[in-house]
Amino acid sequence: MRSPKDFFRPLALGAPDPVREIPFRPSRMIHFFDPSNPKMVAKVPDLAPKVDVLLGNLEDAVAADRKEAARAGLVEVGRAWDVASDAGAGGTGTQLWTRVNALDSPWILDDLTTLVTEIGDKLDVVMLPKVEGAEDVHYADRLLAQLEARANLQRPILLHAILETARGVANVEEICLASPRMQGLSLGPADLAADRRMKTTRVGGGHPGYLVREDPSGDADAPRATYQQDLWHYTVARMVDACGVAGILPFYGPFGDIQDTLACEDQFRNAYLLGCVGAWSLHPVQIDIAKKVFSPAPDEVAWAKRVVEAMGDGTGAVMLDGKMQDDATYKQCQVVLDLARTLAERDPELAERYGL
Fold first, then answer.
1. How far apart are CA 40 and CA 245, in angstroms?
2. Which residues pair with 251 in a beta bridge?
3. Residue 82 gets which letter from DSSP?
4. φ and ψ at 118, to 5 degrees?
5. Which CATH class, in words, describes the domain spanning 4-294?
6. What is the mean pLDDT of each run of 10 residues along the chain (356 residues)?
7. Would you list the domain boundaries of the chain?
8. pTM of the entire structure?
């Protein structure tokens, strides 16, 4: 067992020091693109300013005979990437991430070796699919440190795990706490559904058969109302708690029905209300949905400001519009205000709407 004193020491000679706190940057949508597709690569300069995170996907959506082309395409994007993290400093403020191939695949070693040594100074986060336990994080953690040292990087690349198996969910707390490099978690509903033997072929979202029914009345033949339930409520809530314990960030994953924008918005909002900071966008139509849902509404921000101002130092209790406010609601309102301020720094339109 490692000593706690060693936890924040580099895992390789010459590697950068691990981060002691995960930075929170706007990440309302993680937008996926296929870097093996030259047409998509050509659109990156126009797309990047519109999203918080742009992710070059090397994994499932890329055919086996296109893996090398995808890796090369992402290197091309990375070399042209503006590293300024602050839009006011001349950059877009957009983060560059990648999802590499699974740890049991024949491509993962080349993915990490190539990307870290070629564009490691541009990459913010590496997303690891199908993480099942702390041992997976430990492997990637040590390898990244060695490659960072080889590339003489000055800051560590962070890790983001996807929950896609029952074992991963069972070990979610240890995954979150496995390394100071851990940035967050995403729900991978399709692979997780298959691994659990769930009887749904949908990629995220609900299912009309997963419902509760109103109790019968006196008339046995009278219609009884039904209410569809959320298949992913338990998993998202557990993921949010595990991330909260570790001080990292939870994300909802993909919503596969691109045409059903209303259901996509509903699923994203459920995740937002439970504590997720963002979701994946698989198509440009989902970018604005995520931006809307994961940004607090102006009236919520205005109410939060009223409560914080009325509470002063946050102790005691006050009445506002007939509602009791105390230290607990003060802290809830601070969550909303902190998010609003962070988003306002990146988005001048939101800053104006929030009055910040």
1. 38
2. 186, 278
3. -
4. -90, -45
5. alpha beta
6. 83 95 95 96 94 96 95 96 54 88 97 98 97 98 98 97 98 97 97 95 92 90 92 96 98 96 96 98 97 97 93 88 91 95 92 92
7. 4-294, 300-354
8. 0.93
